[in-house]
Design brief:
This protein has 163 residues and is α+β, with helices and mostly antiparallel strands. It has one domain: Gcn5-related N-acetyltransferase (GNAT) (Aminopeptidase). The chain is built from four helices and seven strands, in the order E-H-H-E-E-E-H-E-H-E-E. The protein has a seven-stranded mixed sheet with strand order 1-2-3-4-5-7-6, sandwiched between helices. Bound molecules: coenzyme A. Coenzyme A binds next to strand 4, helix 3 and helix 4.
Length: 163
């Protein structure tokens, strides 16, 4: 597996992976605007054998807050550590940017994603009722606090309530 910054050439395959992964898949235009946004960071995982896109993940940041907007792995490459490698790379980039946390929303019934995030230290911090449509479902908010080495102290999390 090769990790590299996601590029425009990855978008058509990413749209296929979206259709195989989500009931509300992103169209190409969403990827175009994310990749053009200077406050977004997206990583692609390619199969080293044939250069095929295996999966991708990315976040947007505002000040010291990071929001993971998307992560997906093509079905034939799942349970092989691809998402783990992508998440590790995102966390490393978030630390380099000095972000205080990474956060995301996940469908309450998306057991694989919930399991993946908890392995990486994301904690459930809230629930948005009926956030998703087709099918209607709650979103679980999960946050991973980051500890930039220079800070040396725990980031403030007084407003985060465990659920
Ligand atoms: C969620 C998703 C990204 C995981 O990708 P992946 O490359 O298969 O994940 P990994 O192989 O890195 O898995 C790492 C760990 O996550 C957990 N996990 C991943 N998939 C799981 C599953 N189907 N069931 C239970 N646990 C799972 C396991 O703990 C796993 O470690 P293990 O394989 O050693 O048991 C993938 O299933 C996917 O693309 N799903 C559709 C899109 C999606 O739901 N994205 C998240 C939106 S919030």
């Amino acid at each position: 597996m090769k990790l590299l910054p996601m590029e425009a050439r990855h978008i058509s395959r990413a749209v296929e992976i979206e259709r195989l992964s989500f009931p509300d898949p992103w169209p190409a235009s969403f990827f175009v605007s994310e990749l053009e946004n200077p406050f977004c960071r997206y990583i692609a995982a390619e199969d080293e054998a044939d250069g095929r896109l295996m999966g991708y993940a990315g976040f947007q940041y505002v000040l010291d807050e990071g929001y993971i907007n998307n992560i997906a792995v093509s079905p034939e490459y799942r349970r092989k550590g691809v998402a783990s490698a992508l998440l590790e790379a995102l966390i490393e980039m978030a630390l380099e940017l000095g972000l205080s946390f990474l956060t995301l929303e996940v469908r309450a019934g998306n057991a694989p994603a919930l399991a993946l995030y908890s392995v990486f230290g994301f904690k459930p911090v809230g629930r948005r009722k009926s956030y998703y449509e087709r099918p209607r479902e709650d979103a679980i908010l999960m946050t991973r606090l980051l500890k930039p080495e220079k800070a040396g102290s725990e980031p403030a999390n007084d407003n985060i309530e465990e659920i």
